[in-house]
Design goal:
single chain; 0% strand
């Protein structure tokens, strides 16, 4: 068990993500640095929401960069992914492949979907660990105290991705896809649709069938215990296993948050994402299980 309680917000905080296309100057540079360091093709909503607080984001990235570029962080993301996918085995997820074949999907189309699922299967874990780290520090917790250790000698092996990711926004979508978006928000209790689902909605007929298979898992008795186990494992990694460079000073981070807004507002945003990301990585693992393993290139 971890010391950080899994906490669903009673009232969702207002979030103001700064999207990549609006990021300019120093913020654009930080976004590009972060994507490169995390080896991901997109900025997560959690980091874009934290970028709304410029003093806080500056101090966060200055202190966070040595952590996310370390070998131990890369290894931690990989181990957390393995842990999550093992937990999802309990759902005994039915294959979606026969239904997709009946719909008319060819093998190369299914491989293209697998590749996008793989991007999020790999890329969400850095954001989960970052959200957990931010919540721990803003709430007065401590990191491990371990020195940073060696930098990662290479990035994680990446599945080729669309460049950029093709996202289906609500104003692009037809009525059935907008209905799926609305059902996702209602089912998950969120005011927005994560990037992942907007990327999967590029294939509307796949997306509708995938959500129809995922929704019963979310509603099942197994779901919250799996999410809690992912939360606990992420918290243990952050507080006991990740390096703790001197550049990431919790007091300075809290002061920077207070310079931008009520510190409680920043903490509430961190809590929201630290609560929802264990569910998101669980959901993506279920979607991955629906399609089986990624095909070799």
């Amino acid at each position: 068990m971890s010391d950080l309680v899994r906490l669903r917000p009673d009232r969702l905080p207002a979030i103001h993500p700064v999207p990549e296309y609006l990021a300019s100057g120093q913020l654009h540079t930080w976004y590009e640095e972060m994507k490169h360091a995390l080896d991901v093709p997109w900025m997560g909503v959690v980091t874009m929401a934290l970028a709304h607080y410029p003093n806080f984001f500056r101090e966060l990235w200055r202190g966070l960069r040595p952590i996310v570029e370390s070998e131990s962080f890369v290894a931690a993301c990989g181990s957390l992914r393995i842990f999550t996918e093992q937990q999802v085995d309990a759902f005994q997820v039915p294959s979606l492949l026969p239904a997709l074949a009946r719909t008319g999907y060819a093998g190369r189309e299914i491989d293209a979907i697998r590749n996008v699922v793989e991007i999020f299967s790999r890329g969400n874990f850095p954001y989960l660990l970052i959200a957990t780290l931010v919540r721990v520090l803003l709430e007065g917790g401590r990191l491990s105290g371990h020195p940073p250790g060696p930098a990662a000698s290479r990035h994680r092996d990446a599945t080729p991705s669309p460049a950029p990711l093709v996202l289906m926004e609500a104003h692009h979508a037809d009525a059935p896809t907008r209905a799926v978006f609305a059902d996702i928000k209602a089912t998950l209790g969120l005011p927005f649709v994560n990037t992942d689902y907007r990327a999967f909605a590029r294939w509307p007929s796949y997306f509708a069938q995938a959500w129809a298979g995922l929704k019963p898992c979310v509603a099942s008795e197994r779901y919250e215990p799996v999410c809690r186990s992912v939360h606990d494992r992420a918290t243990i990694i952050v507080t006991r296993e990740l390096p703790d460079p001197s550049s990431l000073d919790a007091a300075v981070l809290r002061e920077a948050a207070a310079a931008d807004a009520d510190r409680g507002d920043v903490t509430s945003v961190a809590r929201l994402f630290q609560w929802l990301l264990p569910g998101l990585v669980t959901n993506v693992a279920i979607l991955r299980a629906q399609l089986g393993p990624v095909c070799d290139a």
